[in-house]
Amino acid sequence: MVKRNPHFAGLSEGYLFPEIARRRRALLEKNPDAKIISLGIGNTTEPLTPAVAQALELAARELGTADGYSGYADDSAGLSALREQIAAVLYKGRITPREITISDGAKCDIGRLQILFGGRATVCIQDPAYPVYVDGSLIAGAGGGLQYMPCRPENDFFPDLGGLKRADLIYFCSPNNPTGAAATKTQLAELVAFARQNKSIIIFDAAYSEFIVEQNLPRSIYEIPGADEVAVEVNSFSKSIGFTGVRLGWCVVPQKLKFEDGRPALPDWLRIINTLFNGASNIAQRGGLAALTPAGRRETQNLVAYYQDNAKLILEGLRQTGIQAYGGVNSPYIWAHFPGQKSWDVFEKILNEAYVVTTPGAGFGPAGESFIRFSAFGRHGDIDAAAQRLKRLKF
Ligand code: PLP
User: Fold this and answer.
1) Superfamily holding 6-48+296-391
2) What pLDDT score does 145 carry?
3) Between the chain's N and C termini, which has fewer beta carbons within 10 Å?
4) Does pTM top 0.70 for this prediction?
C-alpha cells in the first residue's frame, strides 16, 4: 500500500463550511418554514455585466468556426493583449506585461506559489486569514515554520512586525478577508521595509482591490517604492466582475525579485506555469479583456457599488444593535465584534433567532474568536431583509 503524504496529518479537519451547513440543516429540520438568508460565503450572486457576457459569447462562437478556433496557447502565461491591458489599466505601467501571468484564479496561483517557494520556506500569516495560506503551506510541507500575526481592532488590524521572528514568506491580504480592513500606504510601506530588512518575500493578495473606494488607499503593493524587489502579487476577476465560476486571475512576479543566491524568481515561476498549468481558458481571457475596456471598467464599478450598498445595509443593521463592526467600506466583508462571546455561540443565536447564516470568526484563525463575518455578496432584497432581522436582535 502507498503511504499517505505526511503533510496532510498537520491539517485540521475541513470543518468550518460543512459545520455551518450542518447547523443550517438542523434549523430547517426543526423549522421547515424558516426563510433562511445566507450572508455566509464570499460567493458572487449578480449576473455578468453586458460587455463581459457579450465578449464571452463572441469568443465561444469564434471557437466554433474554422478560422476562429484555437487550442493550447503558445504561451501558458496568457494572452499578450490581456497582460498588456492589466499592466496599463490596473498597474498604470508600474509593472510590465512580462511580469504578469494569467491564471485560473488567485487561489490556484497561491497553490502554485507554494510550490515555487517549497515546503522548507518559513511562513508568517495574518490571523485571522483566508484559510488557503495556512492549509496550502501545510500541504506544501511548511509544518515547522508557521507564525501567526494577530490582526485585531487594538492594532488597527495591522500586525506588530517588531514582535516577529524572521520568516521567508509573509502572506498579506488587503482589503482583507475576513476583517474587511484595507491597509494604508504607511502600513504597507512598513511591511515592505520589514521584508527588505529581513530579506523576506511578501505574497500580497489583492483579490478585493476593486472594492477600495477611499482616496489614497493602495490597490497594489507596487504603489510602495521598492516593493518590486520583495513582493509577489496575486489578483482575480472573481469578485470584481463575477468570475467566481468562469475563473480568471493573474499573478505578478517582478523581474527584480531575487532568491538568496541572486537568481531571479520569474524564470522559475514561468517554469511552474509551463509545467503544471496549460494557461487560462481562452474564452475567460476574452471576458477579462472586455472588463478592462472603458465600458467594462464602468460596469465593474457599478457591480462593486451594488455589493457595497449591501455592505452599508448590513453595517446599519448591526449599528442599531449596538454591535461594533469593522470593514464593509473598502471591502465586501463586515467583521462584527462580540466581546466575551464565542463566535460559534453568536453564529447559533443569529441563525436561530434571525434565520441568517454568517461565518464564525474562529474559523479564520485564533484571533477571529468573538467575531462574526458578514458577507455583502447577495441580492439587495435578501440583504435588506437580513439587515431588518439583525436590527431586532439583542446581544
Ligand atoms: N483570495 C482571497 C482573499 C479570497 O477571499 C478569495 C476567494 O474568496 C480568493 C483569493 C480566491 O480567488 P479566486 O476565485 O480568483 O481563486
Assistant:
1) Aspartate Aminotransferase, domain 1 (3.90.1150.10)
2) 78
3) N
4) yes
